[in-house]
Every structure is written in C-alpha cells, then in structure tokens.
Amino acid sequence: MAISLANDSVVAPFLIRPALTHSDSTLSLASSWAIVATIAVGVVLLLFSAALKLKTMSSHGIYDHIPPAIDYGIGGILRGSLHLIMSARSILDAGYRQHGGRTFKIPAFGMWRVVVNTSELADEICKASEDDMSLHLALDATFAMSYTMVPSYCSLDAITAIVTKAIRQSLSKSVEHQVYADLSDEISTAFKDTLHGVGHDGNDDQLVKLSIRLTLDIMATGMLLPLFPRACRRFVADACLYVLGTKRRFASHLHSVISERLRLHSPIADKASRDRVDLLDHFIEQTPPDKRTVDFIVHMIMISNVAAIHTSAITLTQALLHLATSQEYQRELRLEASPILESLGWTPEAFSQMPKLDSFLKESSRMNGIGLASPFRMVLRDYTLSDGTRVSPETIVCSNIRAIHRDERVYAHAEEFDGFRFADQLNVSSSSFDRPTRHYYAFGYGRHTCPGRFLASAELKMMMTYLVLNFDMVVEDPVASLAPSDFVFSISASRSARILLKRRGATQSAI
Ligand code: HEM
Prior knowledge:
It comes from Steccherinum ochraceum. By secondary structure, this protein is of the alpha+beta class. The protein has a single domain (2-505), classed as CATH 1.10.630.10. The protein contains 19 helices and 11 strands. The protein has helices spanning 29-59, 76-99, 119-127, 135-143, 145-148, 156-170, 176-195, 203-224, 230-244, 246-264, 268-271, 279-286, 294-324, 327-344, 348-351, 355-367, 401-405, 453-470, 478-481, and strands at residues 2-5, 10-13, 104-108, 111-116, 133-134, 376-379, 383-384, 390-391, 396-399, 471-475, 498-503. It binds protoporphyrin IX containing FE. Protoporphyrin IX containing FE binds at residues 126, 135, 160, 163-164, 167, 304, 307-308, 311-312, 315, 370, 374-375, 442-446, 448-452, 455-456.
C-alpha cells in the first residue's frame, strides 16, 4: 500500500512494502553463482521431497474419516496444494459452506491441515496441554523458524519462552506511562520523517530498514524450507540467508551496542533506580548466564521483530483503509480524541477513554486479521477433538478464523464492517481490541496469547489518532483497495491500494 499527499506525489511506500534501498547490498558475481547453485540444488531436493510427501499423504488412512474442504478428484492433493497458494480464503469459505461447523481437511504442500470451524474447538486447541499440541512446532513446520531465527545450540521453544517473558516484563503496568511517552515521541518523529519529508538516513534509520528487510527475508526463506528434507534445512537456510546478507548486516549493526550492554549489565532491580531500563535489559536479564552472548541476544531481537513488525503493520494498514473510506468515521474519531488528549495528553488514561477508536481497531481485526488459519497447533500425540475428529502426531490443526469471526450468533450482521460495533458495550475493557475472548482470536488465546498485544494496541491507537487529527484521508478505488492480497494462509492488505492525505490545520498537530 502507498500513502500519498493530496497533490498525488507518493511520499512513502508505507508499511506493507517498506522502502529499502539495495545500494549497500549489491551482489557480487560470486554471490550470484551461489544463488544459482542454491536454487538448482533446491529445486532437485524440493521435487524429490515433494514426491515423497505426496506419496505419504495419499497412503495415510488416518485422515480418511475427515472430509476434504473441496474434493479435487484425481491428483487432488497436488492440485489442492497449488490452489491453496492464492485461494486459501475461498477454499476455507467453500469448506465451511459445505460442511457447516464440521471439521474438514485441506492439502497443504505435503501435509494435511485439519481445520476446525467453531469457537469451542478453537478454544480447545488453544488450551490443549503442551504434551498434546505445540504452537512452536506448528510455526516450525510452516515457517521453519528453528533454522532461520534460532541458533543451532537452542530450541525454538526455549528461546521463545525467554523472549515472551522479557516482553511481558518490559510492558508491565508499572512502566505503562513511560511506554506511552516513548511511543508518542517515536511516532511523531517517524511520521514527520515519512509524511512531512523531514527525512534523514542516520544509524537508527538503517536499523529500521534492516529490521523490516530481515523479517521479509526470514519469512520468505522459512516458507521454502519445509519443502526440503529435514537434514538439508539448516544448510539451505544458512545458504539463503548468507546470500541475502541481511542477517549478517543486522547482527553486525547491533554487535557493539549489545556487547557493551552485556559488559555493563547489572540486575534490573538495581539499574531501575538510577537509569532507564529497556527491552534489551530484559532480554539480557531473562537469559541464563551461560547463554548471554551477542549471538543469542541478536536472535532474540530477531524473533521479537518478526513477531512484531508485519503483524502490527498489516493490522494498521487494514484499519486505515477502512478509515479512509469514510469521512464520517474520521470525524467521529476526531471528536472523540481531541478533548481527551487536550486534557490528559498522550497517556494510557487518555487512550483508555476512547471506546470508538478501540472498537474500530477490533472490528477491523475481526473482519481482516493477519492469518486465515489461526490459532494453529501441531499435534504431538494421538488426540481426539471433542467433536470426535481423531488427529495423529505431526498433523497441524488450525482454526477457520473467518468463520468464527463471522458467526451470526455472536456478531449481528457479521459480514458488514461496523466500526463502532463494540463501542457501546458497557464494560469496554472486557471486550477491548487487545483482549482475546472465545469469539475473538486476533491475538490468539490461551497460554500463547500474544505477549506484545498491549504494545501493539498502544502504538496502533496512537498512529491512527495522529493521522486522523493531522490529515483528511481518502482512499482511491475503495472496492479494490479493501480486497486483500493473501498468500497461502497469510493475509496482506491490498498491495495496490493508495490512501491520499490532505493536511488539516496546524492546530490539529497534537503530539
Ligand atoms: C497487531 C499486532 C499483533 C498481532 C495481530 C499479533 C498476533 C499474534 C498471534 C495471533 C500470536 C499467536 C497466539 C496463539 O497462537 O495463541 C502471537 C504470538 C506472539 N506475539 Fe504477537 N501480535 C502482534 C504484535 C506483537 C508485538 C508488537 C510483539 C512484540 C513486542 C509480539 C510478540 C509475540 C510473541 C513473542 C509471540 C509468541 C508467543 C508464544 O510463543 O507464547 N506480537 N501474536
């Protein structure tokens, strides 16, 4: 998506395809050969492995009692997998229409995905014990994260547990005011850079670009890896990431800051009394002393970046697209925010008194979200779901979030976007944007509920408010702009959408 000022000059390819100049990554002849060799070896292994997997799938009787979402007939597993690349949404919808709330299966590149369609079953998989189902192994099977984001001497489970704990600690209630103050400062600087053209290309800017690029490289590499035999994955991942170069540049960019912080590290309880504490301090504190190396901390930062960047960007983009299609919503959000910010400033108290803003983000996430088959888990031992569906180890069970978020029994006129649907609810906090419930899974549910959701909520609310106070927004071609660009089960806002911004009076500039 692009955002333009009203004279139509595009000022910033924004959020979904963030700009990154490649001048610093010109590939040498040697690396071009390395790419060709990697691709050639990859294609051979890939065909071999895909053939083996398809054979296993067709002969695996354990899945016979689960109906397919769509019956593709002869050669169905291969055709179904190819269809899934660009049409997951229509496959899920077709399966739901045909089977109602019944569980069905979808072929997905050498494995079956078992899809549950009710909030009761989604709730069940989120609450299943770690001995029965695993989020991290499901992530690994889908994006091969163990090979791209985890050092070879550690497991995805172990490192994510440390990252999650550190994020939770860094966002505790006691530092809420500081988090809001830091965010408002960052957001006003970032928008001035991107939208008011006060750009600079300093050290921080390079790191931002590298972080965004690295997330994309990791996801792209990770999506290819599950097609390769397990034994080759580490090699292929290292080769791809070496050639792409972003992981190395990211690590070297952070090296001196992290090693200095490791050298000076003292327990947070001591440090907090005399100095500012940030997420890096929490990462170091939560890491067992024998693992406190620059390499380990770099990997933790990568994991939190991958979890945070595109999830937040996609969620904001989708909400902005809805907002830009309606002058009325913009007017109402301005009327809600202006007097509160005037009296309370950009504080947690202020944003907790904006039910319309909260509702708008929640409604956008209900309608769109970041994934079509989420929450999802990998089955670790034979398990029977409460609807009688038997699933065997290594099966991925996922939730049809579109069907659950469009359940008419829970959401009246569920197919319609109703920005203030949740605004009138008496107890706003019990149904807020960042609060998962059995009928709202934007941030997952159960023990793996997103630990960054409070930060995401705060930053998205501030960015929406900044934009709505400072600009009038119009979207070009609203129908096409609201059409998503999905890839397999990942949702992305339309890549061709353009929002035009017209600056409002200077008095509206509020941060
Ligand atoms: C709008 C933005 C975001 C959305 C929609 C989102 C969504 C999610 C979802 C759906 C999950 C999986 C939960 C489950 O399966 O039960 C998750 C996990 C996670 N998220 Fe977020 N997230 C967002 C922002 C962030 C941010 C800003 C951070 C970091 C500061 C973050 C860090 C994580 C981590 C570390 C996990 C893994 C938790 C675990 O393994 O237990 N997320 N997120």
